[in-house]
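Reviewers of the previous submission asked for a worked example of the structure-prediction workflow described in the proposal, so we include one complete record here. The input consisted solely of the amino acid sequence. No template or homolog information was supplied to the procedure at any stage.
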Amino acid sequence: MAGFRSLARQVRDPRNDLALRRYSLRKCLERFAPYGHRATWDHLCGRHRIGPEDRAPDPARLVAALEELEAARAVWLAYEVEFAARRKREKHAGLRRPGSFDDWHRRTWGGFGVAWCDDPTTHPTEPLAEVLGRMIAALRAAPGTVCPVCGGSRLVWNQDLTHEPWFGPVCSGCGILVPRPVLTSEAVARAKAARRGELASVA
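From that input alone, the workflow returned the following structure tokens.
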């Protein structure tokens, strides 16, 4: 099975036909897709003006989309190196039982679903590297009360997600599943109450 860098070389190789280069870019998303495969593809197509079903897109646009994806992957891989070093220090100090933060990180290892968007058409519009930078900054900081990506305060608990953890606070502004470790317990409680309020208004 080809790795991310091998697939990236196929995207760049002008000797390959455009259908293969497009296919290789899609396959890159099986290795690294911050919003999930479908939402990350929708994001890249929108930002780089690639028709989602176009089998022969402009090669310059394919490469630009790949470069955005690579920049974001570099940000995330640097964070994972830092995370692994921290866990090593903690284990050396006798802290072997992972906490809720580490449980969240386990689900996103490799960068898949770091900023999960359950609705593939609703996701942040900024470059992926910028979004991941904001997410990482929030993970390093004390828990807050707003979305770490867009700063939105309207968080609504979703009980029926299509990706593990299957439930959690979703930002109504940019559509990401907000990692619980970046939110205060009060913010999580408000998100749950907002969900209950929506259910009551429907009934």
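The mean pLDDT is 89. We consider this example representative of the routine output the project will generate in years two and three.
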